Amino acid sequence: MVPKMEIQINRVHTLALVLTLSLAACLGCQSKHEHIAPAVDGRDSLPFLTAHGISNLISDSGIISYKIVAEDWFIYTQPRQDWVFPKGLFLEKFDTTFHVNWYVQSDTAYCHDNRTWELRGRVVVLNRDGDLFETEELFWDMDAHQLWNNVYMCITKPSTNQQLKGYRFRSNEQMTEYSINNSAGYTPMNENKDNDAQAASSGSDGTINDAPKRPSQADDRKNSTSTSNSFR
After folding, report:
1. Tens of pLDDT along 72-83?
2. Distance between CA atoms of 112 and 114, rounded to whole angstroms?
3. What is the number of domains present in the chain?
């Protein structure tokens, strides 16, 4: 038989081993870091406000400056304030006398932080002079009062039947002073001016009108000689 004292010592050793392993396991659980992503907030993916079939006037510094017409308008507040017009936008910009400076329409539009507009798709702008701007991308900084893009731009001036094409478009907010790089285009000749100039140099029957000739010094001497002989 195993002595009773030896049995008790073995039990103590076993209990000590179990306690040591349990303590090690607890310490391991406490030091372990679980990589868990933060909870998804509904505001990260859902708009704060949704509007459909809108026609709205927007003021700037207390003065009505813009008119927006859109089928859908989504307003987000997270992670930043954005306006999204996924089904297109029609926007008119007014001057201080409430006349339309220009209007723009595009397939998709974004407004970031109430400051920068991003227009994409079929973007068409018409200024108050009747100049037509067509592109696939256009940015507008309302604080800097500038518009620009880096893609292809086509500008048509119906008043003069001129057209200008190029890249890297830059313009003032009124779309009246602008520049474009790598430009190409055409300017038609005015045939009416050429015809008017030709008609001015010819008579009504199409013959050229000769201007009166100034008498030469030889003719003056000849006339004076014939006059002196006649008095002899």
Report:
1. 999 998 888 899
2. 5
3. 1
